[in-house]
Amino acid sequence: MAPTFSYMARAPKLPLFSHGVPPKSSSRPPLALSLAISSQHCSSSSLEVVYHDIKAHTLRSLPADLHPSVAAPMRRLISAAPPTAAPALCLAACHLVGGSRDRAINAACCVQLMHAAFHVHGRCSAAAHAPGVELMTGDGILSFGYEMLSEGAGDPERVLRAVVEIASATGARGVLEGQLMEAEGEGEGLWVRERKEGRLFSCSAACGAILGGGSEEEVERLRRFGLYVGMMRGGPTDASAETFRSLARLELKGFEPERVEEAQMLYGSWWYDRCTEGSISQV
């Protein structure tokens, strides 16, 4: 019998601080939204190929009958988003549970579009277009992400769960909350990092496992794994990064070594090496 899934996305609790009211920051940053994901370029050639494949698939999926005044800014702003490894983690997680790439590709594109939309909204004060145009286009990118995800292959119930996962992770209890709290000076680095990079990577990995047909245990393992990888990527190399590396390594032990090796070959070894070889520098 297939497992019964709850539609409430469950964000794993970090061992380093409690959830709830974020810690106050002693210094108040400028009142501007920062990007959801680091804009640092990926060093792994495999990861770069996967990233560009996902972006190309996203652009090809735009409706052909869009009015040019809508299609042009959407294409431009989707392409302008800085690289992120979160969508690739969705595909890697799907592979780890035995799923095929076609089951998770639309979810990976949706994660990419969420990232692009947050980038658009965060840069409106320095936009090339009129702020209203960029805001509306960012909203259109968000909507298109959910449209792509809902049309993905696989069990409709699992697709629906993936929709809820991404909505929860990027909304008022996730990336958006982290960005706004950071802009208002209400949260410190680790708390903000968990809401932004941590939640996006966590839900991306969970969605890959869900759509790949993973068990509840596999979904939760990969959800936690994604969180720890996102926390490592979202901040500087410090004492906490070593803790997250150790935690992430533990979550991989429940998967077949052959599948882990295959996922490295297909989607780059960045997510694995950082957890097993002691490398915690950004990629």
UniProtKB/TrEMBL annotation:
Domain of life: Eukaryota
Protein name: Geranylgeranyl pyrophosphate synthase 7, chloroplastic
Cofactor: Mg(2+)
The organism of origin for this protein: Iris pallida (Sweet iris)
Keyword annotations from UniProtKB, A to Z: Magnesium, Metal-binding
GO molecular function, one term: metal ion binding
InterPro entries named in the record: Isoprenoid_synthase_dom_sf
